[in-house]
Amino acid sequence: MASFDVIILGAGPGGYVCAIRCAQLGLKVAVVEGRDTLGGTCLNIGCIPSKALLHASHMLHEAQENFEKMGLMTASPKVDWVRMQGYKDDVVGQNTKGVEFLFKKNKITWLKGWGSIPAAGQVKVGEEVHQAKSIVIATGSEPSSLPGVTVDETTVVTSTGALTLGKIPKTMVVIGAGVIGLEMGSVYARLGSEVTVVEYLDAITPGMDAEIARAFQRIMTRQGLTFVLGAAVQGVDVAKGGATVRWTLKKDNSAGSQKADVVLLATGRRPYTAGLGLEALGVEVLPRGHVKTDGHFATTVPGIYAIGDAIPGPMLAHKAEDEGMALAEILAGKAGHVNYGVIPGVIYTTPEVASVGATEDQLKAEGRAYKVGKFSFMGNARAKAVFQGDGFVKLLADKDTDRILGCHLIGPAAGDLIHEVCVAMEFGASAQDLALTCHAHPTFSEAMREAALACGDGAIHA
Ligand code: NAI
User: Which among 246, 268, 59 has a CA at the least distance from the CA of 179?
Assistant: First the structure.
């Protein structure tokens, strides 16, 4: 038995970042992790492996579509799926080992195994019970299930199985046009699969700015994805060599179905807190499975805290990281804080989609007076030079004060570009502040400035 200031359950982006910050602030910290490698869902079976496959499949697409246009007369590359998987595994390995290195560097103890909380102040791992002044639940999330759909991770897969398919399927049906469905759907579409995306709502990517969502759907359709919207999936029947997805269209109750080699279930994730013993402890859990916390990550039991996907809010690695850092600071007696109004969201397709702050629909619903500055990447020389003129930036600012309220864009490097608006919003900047900031030419970032200019006297290249 050992005793610590803090024991964190889960070594995902929330847990491992919390641990590092706790150690930096002088606390004695341990992390319980039952997986063989650190980094949680994100590094092992989520963000990182999917980005490797997105990159590889994007390169293939570039070679097939654009190489000859640039005078690169190489024959179109062939896909060696086993090697592509090897590349992906190598990327994952480098990152998980990196976290292990950071644990050693910061003298963080890794308690290997699955943990539970027998009582406040105690964490049980295997047969051993360890003591801690504070316990942090950072156990993340798992894919949600859907009635009538049985996942076997071979024919009917979640994002986990979609990363390790035995071969590239000829046909794939994706259930859910959210982030996972579109990222993984676009990977397989680029690798040659015929991909159909079945979505319950009448638009893709719920919560996204409606204008961006429409443009995104058009671009994805051009890239070969087929969408069936407004369709409630009734079930999936697995037969030898594939599965059939059945749905009813909400508009007229008509039935539809589609057979495919592989079905990807991507209808959301739910908090993963099974086996921790929360009920016996009296830690309150909300109806959708999230741990209830106050504004400072404290659960209903003193000394037990929760962060990341296990608590309400967007299920994003960077939101969990920020909560991990803020909580570490609170536990060290400082004032940790997360600004939930400035958490960016990114979809890593090509082009990328990114957003931060309010959407136009939200501003309308709130009855706020706002102005919109838009700029198309067609007017951006750098984007055109690399065949990425598709897409646009949309900046929303207060009509009277010019303060930036939100930004939504679809286009090259959108996931990086969004951060200049995040910084601007953290500083309470106006659109004019952004417009008066010199942006290097030729860069994609000029499109951000042009959108800011469009909030005022007008963009230059529009
Ligand atoms: P999601 O919440 O993004 O999308 C789920 C979609 O499934 C929604 O469009 C929903 O309307 C639809 N749906 C629900 N029930 C359905 C039904 N019965 N039939 C048809 N469609 C149905 O969830 P997703 O894509 O599974 O991702 C899970 C979580 O992981 C999300 O919170 C997401 O933010 C996070 N994630 C983030 C990534 C990123 O930041 N790039 C990448 C991958 C995941």
Answer: 268
